[in-house]
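In response to reviewer comment 3 from the previous cycle, which asked for concrete evidence that the modeling workflow produces usable outputs, we include below a single protein chain processed end to end. The sequence was submitted unchanged, and the resulting structure tokens are shown without manual editing.
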Amino acid sequence: MPMEVVLVCPFYEAGFDGRFYNSTLIIDSDGYIVGTYRKRHLPPDNERVHFSKGSGPMSSFPTHVGRIGVYICWDNFFPEGARALALDGADLVIAPSAATDLEAAFKWHIAIQHNAMVNGIPWIRINRAELPFYATKFVADAEGKRKFYTDDASQWISLVEIDYTQTDRVREEWTFLKDRRPRMYRQIVE
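The workflow returned the following structure tokens.
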């Protein structure tokens, strides 16, 4: 049985507007480009010198393997965008990153596992592998549990089975999305 592979490809984008973006291209298993995501939040480092912030609504992309959301690197520390991806119907979120501070790696685990748990969506974090970056990749399932982890830089490809049916069960048990009260959070979007 052939695998349906969807590619999520981070790249340095030179936009038609003359600005540069930290972007990710999503290519479906049939070879068609289904979308581009531009990183929305830039950390307080040299990235702000090189890139512009992406804009527009947070949205997931329809593919043959489900709706895929993308949340690049520093974006993962902003729960509002993670919730927006869940509300847009993301079945899975890919979080490519290029982090260098190994002492802060635990913060990524907390943020990614939190985003997965409170939204009931599997979340995949992939960090750039060559120096000065550290080669951590892991998968948090829809409950926020770490299902897979490696920091082996020589392990370029990892196959991890994702159970999409877990999302419905988790959301029935942990009713975070159903119990939202958006009118009470208006100051968040102002």
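Residues 7-189 form a domain with the Nitrilase/N-carbamoyl-D-aminoacid amidohydrolase fold (CATH 3.60.110.10). We consider this sufficient to address the reviewer's concern, and the full set will be provided in the supplementary archive.
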